[in-house]
């Protein structure tokens, strides 16, 4: 296992004033004062904030450091969306796609990245745009897709973790949350009916794994420390009501026309939050023919697969970002992203009846079975 401790790591944790309040962000790197060659941005899900990527950032930094394959200065940016963590919770505006795309744009534009300047022979200089990678999880995957569709000139790489945005059957009773006078009451009751640990645990497959236990403990501590309950309830209801969680297929398709952009979609095999057996086919249909797309399905994981298979996720990201060869079809490209990652057999002892249905779906699918690791 990679050691998550980096002696040379530098961290900035502060606020940026944006149009609708303040946005809390965390910037990691090994030399934050130097010009930026590559910015990797993490966009969290509907009910989480920047803490959820804490260990993945460290694992990815360690991946680059251990292989020493890049002389570029890479910086890692994560932030709290409006209504989450320490960021402002604007109450007088819809928490829709436009709001979160605007917030992300303001953040990337406002963070001091110190672009690299290159001297020319005629004593002039040019400013190089940093390579920008957007990684979005769940609702954050939909935000990342919307952002890449609107600001495709800014995005070089798009990585989607079990992204929302395609059509799927939402949980029973979820329509009640969208009733204006009832939403906060219904979600508030659901929110208060279980502990923070129980909520987080629904997105995980193997709760007996020691690493998973550590990550859950950290997530619980950070969520209870940084999330204000009433703010979280109002922002969740606002987002659930107004954000297009199941309705951005046109934007996914538009991203699929951007041939310069590298794209990777990763799904948890046993995901019950944004089920891959309902949603992955949409993303594959719209992005599978893209000349730079890759796909992966993580076995023995639920929604938050990057917490359960942290090191493998970091390897996937690293392999993808460092594969300059876009030759071959989607299967050949994906196989290169999956190299050096051990394929796992399904842990049947932990599987529910629903898990077994998903396993059958993916392992018998003529296309998707080739992406399972």
Automatic annotation (TrEMBL):
<feature type="domain" description="Serine aminopeptidase S33">
    <location>
        <begin position="36"/>
        <end position="182"/>
    </location>
</feature>
<dbReference type="InterPro" id="IPR022742">
    <property type="entry name" value="Hydrolase_4"/>
</dbReference>
<protein>
    <recommendedName>
        <fullName>Serine aminopeptidase S33 domain-containing protein</fullName>
    </recommendedName>
</protein>
<dbReference type="Pfam" id="PF12146">
    <property type="entry name" value="Hydrolase_4"/>
</dbReference>
<dbReference type="InterPro" id="IPR029058">
    <property type="entry name" value="AB_hydrolase_fold"/>
</dbReference>
<dbReference type="InterPro" id="IPR050266">
    <property type="entry name" value="AB_hydrolase_sf"/>
</dbReference>
<dbReference type="GO" id="GO:0016020">
    <property type="term" value="C:membrane"/>
</dbReference>
């Amino acid at each position: 296992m990679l050691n998550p401790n980096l002696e040379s790591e530098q961290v900035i944790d502060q606020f940026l004033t944006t149009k609708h309040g303040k946005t809390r962000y965390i910037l990691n790197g090994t030399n934050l004062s130097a010009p930026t060659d590559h910015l990797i941005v993490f966009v969290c899900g509907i009910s989480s904030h920047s803490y959820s990527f804490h260990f993945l950032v460290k694992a990815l930094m360690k991946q680059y450091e251990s292989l020493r394959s890049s002389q570029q200065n890479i910086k890692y940016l994560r932030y709290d969306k409006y209504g989450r963590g320490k960021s402002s919770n604007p109450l007088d505006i819809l928490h829709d796609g436009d709001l979160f795309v605007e917030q992300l744009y303001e953040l990337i534009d406002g963070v001091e990245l110190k672009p690299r300047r290159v001297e020319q022979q005629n004593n002039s200089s040019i400013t190089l745009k940093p390579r920008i990678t957007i990684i979005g999880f769940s609702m954050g995957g939909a935000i990342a897709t919307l952002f890449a569709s609107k600001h495709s000139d800014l995005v070089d790489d798009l990585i989607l973790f079990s992204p929302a945005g395609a059509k799927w059957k939402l949980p029973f009773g979820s329509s009640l949350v969208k009733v204006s006078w009832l939403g906060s009451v219904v979600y508030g009751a659901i929110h208060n009916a279980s502990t923070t640990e129980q909520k987080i645990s629904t997105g995980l497959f193997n709760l007996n794994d020691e690493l998973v236990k550590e990550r859950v403990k950290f997530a619980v501590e950070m969520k209870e420390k940084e999330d204000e309950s009433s703010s979280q309830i109002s922002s969740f209801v606002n987002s659930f009501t107004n954000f297009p969680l199941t309705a951005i297929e046109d934007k996914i398709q538009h991203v699929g026309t951007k041939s310069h952009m590298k794209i990777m979609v990763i799904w948890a095999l046993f995901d019950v939050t944004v089920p891959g057996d309902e949603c992955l086919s949409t993303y594959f249909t719209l992005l599978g023919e893209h000349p730079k797309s890759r796909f992966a399905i993580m076995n023995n994981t639920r929604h938050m697969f990057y917490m359960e298979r942290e090191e493998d996720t970091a390897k996937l990201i690293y392999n993808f970002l460092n594969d300059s060869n876009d030759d071959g079809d989607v299967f050949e490209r994906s196989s290169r992203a999956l190299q050096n990652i051990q394929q796992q057999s399904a842990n049947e002892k932990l599987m529910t009846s629903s898990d077994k249905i998903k396993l059958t779906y993916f392992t018998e699918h003529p296309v998707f079975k080739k992406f399972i690791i």
